[in-house]
Write a structure and sequence with these properties.
Length: 324
């Protein structure tokens, strides 16, 4: 058995550094490996508990890579429950760089809500606001939500129809940005594997604040696109009907690359894709499918337009350029 103190030290050192690239990937692989899984989970639990002796709302991060197996679907629980790769989610929470200022609260518990592949769900938050959540998305909010604060942490995509309360702003946080609303409806797309976060205002008004402190107020029909790598953003006019297509069980692609399309298909179907990064160029495509369409039918249409071939092995699609 590996020494518990050794595991504690590895996790503690990682949580206090800004690991990048291969180092981060290797740590995540080690963390979710079955070997010494109980010892690693115990170490994470100890590290979390010794952070001011409590889990606090202030130590929640902007969410990054979370895998579907992290959370059981629709399970409402304390955040310190561990299951499989939940360890990854917790260490990413501990090591996040996007923190709120410390509060006086020392004993806050959180609720989580997760939607599985291909599922969309609607939930009513404690303040009466409605959240429609897209597939493979996670939201976390504190037990006291709606009383002193209304802050939600999002990884994935959700549409929020906010109950007006001028005294308690409604805040959604994700990787590098914070969206504040008083009473409005807006859509946030913030999947960890995507290079951009997209905030679209449907009605009302929202203020988007970046980690750098830069602020921008959106008008209805405007979409802010935030580049997670550069920290830059731009604002454009969009068709609200297209942005909310997922709420009508439609898969709508407008001016997107094949890589982006495959990411969306993985979220909506229990499949994965294997291909060389150089397999596709940056050509943009338009497609529209109903979610009832089978993944096979969708792939057969896309491959003819984008000129590629694939071989299917169970739930794995191996894609290659079409032979001339």
């Amino acid at each position: 058995m590996m020494d518990d103190k050794y595991i504690d030290k590895i996790i503690e050192l990682y949580s206090k550094t800004k690991a990048e690239g291969a180092t981060k990937d290797e740590f995540h692989e080690w963390l979710i490996d079955e070997e010494f899984s109980e010892e690693k989970e115990d170490a994470l639990f100890r590290l979390w508990e010794q952070d001011n002796n409590a889990s606090t709302e202030d130590s929640l991060p902007s969410f990054v890579a979370l895998q579907e197996k992290v959370i059981q679907r629709k399970k409402k629980t304390k955040i310190l429950l561990w299951k499989s790769a939940a360890a990854v989610a917790i260490i990413l929470i501990i090591s996040s760089i996007f923190f709120l200022p410390r509060s006086k609260s020392t004993d806050i518990s959180f609720n989580e809500y997760f939607t599985q592949t291909g599922q969309t769900e609607t939930m009513i938050l404690p303040d009466g606001s409605a959240a429609q959540i897209n597939s493979k998305s996670l939201i976390i909010y504190p037990d006291h939500f709606g009383k002193e604060a209304r802050t939600i942490y999002l990884s994935g995509e959700a549409n929020f129809d906010v109950q007006k309360n001028e005294k308690v702003p409604f805040i959604v946080k994700s990787a590098g940005i914070s969206i504040t609303a008083l009473g409005t409806e807006f859509n946030v797309c913030a999947y960890p594997e995507d290079a951009y976060i997209k905030v679209t205002l449907i009605n009302g008004s929202v203020k988007v604040v970046q980690a750098s402190g830069l602020e921008h107020t959106l008008l209805p029909g405007h979409q802010l696109i935030y580049d997670k790598h550069t920290g830059k953003h731009n604002v454009r006019d969009v068709d609200i009907h297209e942005i909310t297509a997922w709420q009508r069980n439609e898969l709508l692609f407008r001016g997107v690359t094949i890589n982006e399309i495959l990411n969306v298909l993985e979220r909506n179907y229990k499949v994965s894709f294997q291909y060389e990064n150089s397999a596709f160029d940056n050509d943009k495509y338009n497609f529209k499918f109903k979610k009832e369409a089978s993944i096979t039918d969708i792939m057969n249409i896309i491959k003819e337009v984008a000129d590629f071939e694939y071989k299917k092995d169970g739930d794995l699609y191996c894609i290659s350029p079409k032979r001339k």
